[in-house]
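Workshop exercise sheet. Pairs work together: one partner reads the sequence aloud, the other fills in the structure field after running the prediction. Swap roles for the next sheet.
Pair: D.N. / O.F.
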Amino acid sequence: MVMDRLNEALTELDGALSTPRAPELWRNAHNLLKRTTADQMKVGRLIAERNLVGLRAMVQSGIGEQQRVPGLSRPAQPAVPVQSAVVSEAVAAAMSADQASSATAVLVAPSFDQLRNGLRAFKKKMRVSQLDSDSHLTNRALTGGSRGTISAITPPTEFPRQVWEQLATEGKLKRAGHGMYALPLE
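Structure field:
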């Protein structure tokens, strides 16, 4: 039952990748995948990367539904971890052209609209974070009135990591380390 719903969700997501409904569909697919025997670390990574091809390969590799044990509120874990057929980017790069075309780790370049909306969301989150930091009062009667020291933030999670990497490559964002980005000095 879960597998049927999961296949339907992936098919629906395939047709609606660039629509406003896409984040809801990704959440739905993630919630369904949580109820399977799939490696949850790999599932989380594939969801964060918005890697539909990798998710589809994981589903086709033979993951199953978790079995419920009477009296337990959580589903029972399988005795042997299930291996998935996801190929890493480094391995896919080292493969020949024939093998690489069938590799499951395919990353799609973000569209212009995704980049524009991602940069807009990043700037808004940066502005709100700075305003929030500036609004805090200190223990002193007279605050210094100095600007906050927030210079980098983690980007909004509504957009895949490829958007932030592309914006950093284009010079519109600057990598600050540990998954954080900053606006370049103008």
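Discussion prompt: Residues 54 and 104 are 5 Å apart (CA to CA). What would you look at next?
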